[in-house]
Design a protein that fits this description.
The chain is an alpha+beta fold. It has one helix and four strands. The longest helix is centred in the last third of the chain and has 22 residues, at 50-71. The relative contact order is 0.17.
Length: 79
Amino acid sequence: MTDKLGPTGTFPSGKLTRHDEGALNFAIGEQGESVVLKFGEPVAWMGMTPEQAVGLAELLIKKARVVARRQGKPLTVRL
């Protein structure tokens, strides 16, 4: 990811609530035996469209498979 982590200062879908702080760049990776999400700053909550939620789930599953494969463990995904 080449973008800086943390808030972007933009509101691409408008404000979800009056406390919405805008879009957030974050990274998903793996470190040792864990799948890691890096936000660049403390994050209280995230909102996203259904399509974005599915995309996040797909990325998390991909990283989980990498970590599980490295550990020699089977990974089952139930939807």
